[in-house]
């Protein structure tokens, strides 16, 4: 596992850790079942505070990318099925909200495209 933290990046260090581990897990660079370093170990290797890495791990676990097995460690979770379910639920909630607001399909899609562009290109 290779992570690089860029201090001059506009993204917070925990977010950089979260994004890089997530991308590596989804691309298969980190296979399902891969044991991640301990919070303290990864923090030391990256020169970050342990709380920063712990925050990233909590977010990754919430996203379904990793799972913690108590004293056994933290591992890459099975192929993102939890993340896909959560994404589908979020999309459904968005659609319901857009319909309640009487927003048409094209306007709703445009809002999503704008939000994605801002998040991924910003």
Structure description:
With 122 residues, the protein is mainly alpha-helical. Helix content is 60%, strand content 7%. It has 5 helices and 3 strands; from the N terminus they run H-E-H-H-E-E-H-H. It has helices at 13-27, 39-46, 50-62, 81-100, 105-121, and strands at 35-36, 66-68, 74-76. The protein has a 3-stranded antiparallel β-sheet with strand order 1-3-2. Helix 1 crosses helix 3 (50-62). It is globular, with a radius of gyration of 17 Å. It starts with 12 loop residues before the first helix and ends with a helix. The model has no long low-confidence stretch (mean pLDDT 89).
What descriptors fit this protein?
122 residues; three-stranded antiparallel β-sheet; 60% helix
Secondary structure elements and pairings:
Blueprint: H1 13-27, E1 35-36, H2 39-46, H3 50-62, E2 66-68, E3 74-76, H4 81-100, H5 105-121
Antiparallel strand pairs: 1-3, 2-3
Estimate percent helicity: 55-70%
- Mean pLDDT, to the nearest integer, reads 89
- SS-derived structural category: mainly alpha
Task: Please give the largest β-sheet.
Answer: 3 strands, antiparallel
Number of strands: 3
Give a short overview:
It contains 5 helices and 3 strands. By secondary structure, the chain is mainly alpha-helical.
């Amino acid at each position: 596992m290779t992570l690089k933290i860029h201090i001059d990046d506009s993204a917070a260090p925990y977010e950089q850790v979260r994004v890089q581990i997530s991308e590596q897990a989804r691309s298969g660079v980190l296979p399902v079942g891969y044991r991640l370093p301990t919070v303290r170990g990864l923090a030391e290797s990256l020169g970050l505070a342990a709380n920063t890495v712990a925050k990233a791990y909590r977010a990754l676990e919430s996203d379904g990318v990793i799972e913690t097995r108590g004293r056994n460690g933290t591992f890459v979770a099975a192929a993102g099925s939890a993340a896909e379910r959560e994404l589908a639920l979020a999309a459904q909630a968005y659609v319901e909200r857009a319909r309640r607001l009487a927003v048409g399909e094209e306007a709703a899609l445009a809002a999503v495209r704008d939000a994605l562009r801002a998040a991924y290109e910003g």
